[in-house]
Amino acid sequence: MAKACADHRLITHQLKELIATSSVSSTDPSWDQGNLPVIERLADFAQAAGFSTEIQIVDADASKANLIATKGSGIGGLVLAGHSDTVPFDEGRWQTNPLQVHEQDQRFYGLGTSDMKGFFPLAFAAAAQFDSSSLNAPLTLIATADEESTMNGAKALLKSQIHQADGVIIGEPTNLKPIRMHKGMLMSRIVVRGHSGHSSNPALGNNAIDGMHRLITGLMALRLELQAEQNLAFEVPYTTLNLGHIHGGDSPNRICAHSELQFDLRIIPGLKTDLITAKIQSLCQQESEFSGLNVLWEPLMDPVPPFEEGADSALVRLAESLTDAKAASALFATEAGFFKALGAQAIVMGPGSIDLAHQPNEYLAFDQINPCITLLSNAIKHYCL
């Protein structure tokens, strides 16, 4: 396969621009930011690499957007995709400014260098090797909004009229190893409302913590039930249920009138998210009928679907041949399931390490730059020439 060399100065310039343009997405409004300035910079870079560009607004106040950049024309082809947002950060735990690229020890340090703004300059470098006139099928680059929070960018793509590609490479950090499956994600909460009263007489109130205790017992039983169905391709081969946050009451001498539990599930491919949520809702209804407490279950965000690409699919076979690595599974969630819903074969494969994601002192190692460009260049040749 052909090997590509990087224009280090151009990559450094583009990466510095992207990292310096903060685009935190969060379900916490105090952190949440728009990503439109990053999308506009990406559009400039894409045009310089020979793409035509479309900015797709995905929220009511026009602060969040996707970029759809296309080179060449026709049907099928290849999509290189990634998200343009980052997670919140604690600047005090960083050794350098997280919003400025710092070069040290053959690494680029900065927020999003690995997860995953660093993918885009490398994708542009690969794409710049091909003139539109040489492409027999389109090459598309997609940058989305809000992957780290609501997935609204990916959901907007499902409603758009983008063409159906033959293959999609989502450039999340996998150390350039192909990932063909990952778990889905459901984050939700249960709120229990009772009636307060003096603790000396339980009959004066209805204790929300008592009800939450019974609900947690039911969730723990559900956890064991879910563990019975396993997929040995995963390091943790079953669906997990994590109790992540709980609060209730205000004083030991008052009957608790309000309690809230937040939890998440990481769901293996093949299990139906709606069947799991139906069981949780049934637990809540049973508790309400038993105790008279007001019990509400609601998702904290729309579920992220599990993802699985067939082991014998053309894209998986190509990725394995280009990387000399067997396609594996990941515990983290991505937008791959949304691209599968658009009808394309999909794989997760990009530079950087997921172990560095969402951590202080995140970095992209220089030794992944040229191999990534070569990998993407060869994928473009396969699908677009």
Automatic annotation (TrEMBL):
Keyword Metal-binding among record annotations? yes
Record's keyword annotation contains Transmembrane: no
Signal peptide feature range: none
Domain Peptidase M20 dimerisation, first and last residues per copy: 181-287
A Gene Ontology BP annotation from the UniProt entry: L-arginine biosynthetic process
Q: Which domain of life is it from?
A: Bacteria
Entry's localization field:
Cytoplasm
| Listed Gene3D superfamilies | 3.30.70.360, Zn peptidases (3.40.630.10)
What keywords tag this UniProt record? Amino-acid biosynthesis, Arginine biosynthesis, Cobalt, Cytoplasm, Hydrolase, Metal-binding, Zinc
The GO molecular function terms of this record are: acetylornithine deacetylase activity; metal ion binding
Q: Which Pfam family, any one of them, does this sequence belong to? A: Peptidase_M20
Question: What protein name applies here?
Answer: Acetylornithine deacetylase
Q: Which InterPro entries match?
A: AcOrn-deacetyl, Bact_exopeptidase_dim_dom, Peptidase_M20, Peptidase_M20_dimer, Peptidase_M20A
User: What are the GO cellular component annotations?
Assistant: cytoplasm
Q: Give the record's family classification.
A: Belongs to the peptidase M20A family. ArgE subfamily.
Q: Which organism is it from?
A: Aequoribacter fuscus
